[in-house]
Amino acid sequence: MHETRTSDLAILLGHALQCEACRERLLTAPDRVLVGRKISAEQRSQVAALRNEDFESAAALAAAVGLSLPELVEGQNHPRARLRHL
To answer: Looking at the whole model, is its pTM more than 0.90?
Structure first.
């Protein structure tokens, strides 16, 4: 059986959806938060364009960055999303 890896984008946004301080950091300095993360140039652009309103629900956030809702929920539930601040 082959396990798929949870994307860095899903983990990052899953945490930001739950942590207001990290969400604020992401919204005000996305380039700084994204340093060293395995995120494509297109995803970086999508993250840079996020607004606070995009975090009103998991579905809205997933749509804003092109993730499926199950991908985002997987990121939210990932141990790194629950234990590590941005």
So the answer is: no
> DSSP state, 5?
P
Tell the burial category of 9 from Cβ atoms under 10 Å away from its Cβ (0-12, 13-18, 19+).
buried
The predicted-structure confidence for 14-59, as pLDDT tens digits, reads as follows 999 999 999 999 999 999 999 999 999 999 999 999 999 999 999 9
Domain ranges (residues) in the chain: 8-83
42 CB-contact burial (10 Å; exposed 0-12 / middle 13-18 / buried 19+): exposed
d(CA 27, CA 19): 12
